[in-house]
Design brief:
alpha+beta; Butyryl-Coa Dehydrogenase, subunit A, domain 1; Butyryl-CoA Dehydrogenase, subunit A, domain 2; Butyryl-CoA Dehydrogenase, subunit A, domain 3; 4-stranded antiparallel beta sheet; 12 helices; 47% helix
Amino acid sequence: MLPRPFNEDHHAFRAAFRKFVEKEAVPHIERWREQGIVDREMYTKAGEQGFLMLWPDEKYGGAGLEDFRYEQIAIEEVWYSLAGDWFASLHSRLVGPYFKHFGNEEQRQRFLPKCVSGETILAIGMTEPDAGSDLAGMRTTAKDMGDYWLLNGAKTYISNGILADVVVVAAKTDPENNRHAMGLFLVERGMPGFERGRQLKKMGHMAQDTAELFFNNVKVPKANVLGDPTKGFQYMMQGLAEERLLAGCEFISAAHKAFDITVDFVRQRKAFGKRVADFQNTQFKLAEMRTELDVAQVYLDQCVAAHNEGKLTAVDAAKLKLFISELQGRVVDECLQLHGGAGFMDEYPISRLYRDARITRIYGGTSEIMKLIISRDVLSDRFKLFVDRE
């Protein structure tokens, strides 16, 4: 594999974070999966060590590490260790930046310090029972009542839905005249009318709390609105490139793990008197997967570099999310096949990796939506040929 673009500071951070994950996450994974939720203390422990919300300035309690590669390293370590049910990146880098980009200084002072420390856990409420990828189809509304906004509606499949203390809720603010007019509202734990429904049972990510949320005449103070209450749709669109970059980092790390444990398995497993690794079919399958993973990793690392420079486009992020989620699906399937019957047993990590991987082609934008985004660019007047021959 080609050298990765990390410096000495990155390597030092990786070593410290890996040690933290091995001590505070790995020993508890099975218990978390059995109880269906990660211990809340995992966030405060990470906060105490400075491993949450790396980007905020020191005045908010953060380390001021804007370089996305630090988040990339944290994701790689969590997902490779099979602790990906702890959705720290959702808290730290998917939801948290909404305060930076669209909040005001009062909101940042009020919320960020406790988000950095892990005392306040974040979630975002976009998806509804009848509106997933089509955000414009959401039915949750917020009505301006003068001194406050009156929020009504429901959200589903919300990650961190049980643990969250603050949920960034998307709601339509002018549904009769403009279906894209939306606001982002900071709904806090304990607000009257804010209720949590079922913690949803899932195929994979058993320890990640996913829930239904209900808003019945919730009075949201004007001070809890992020930015312009009519531009929430545009705000969410701005964050999608980074969300898909985060997803790419997660998915490829899990795919690398599946590959590595499979290499170890076929070296030891015997069939017909020889190692499974000695069959040409096994060797060719491993060669194909290793090549695809290495090529995908280079593209992902380039996307991180572009993002650090403020140049990652929504289209390039869609390509990344599409390719790596589909690649992960192929890799875990091939790896499970090479495990034979053992791969179907829950005691083998590949079984869990296989189940967890199925959602990756859906959340963060389905593969079909990614193809739509890419094809629109290809057919637009902006599209440039690989080599301009004019």
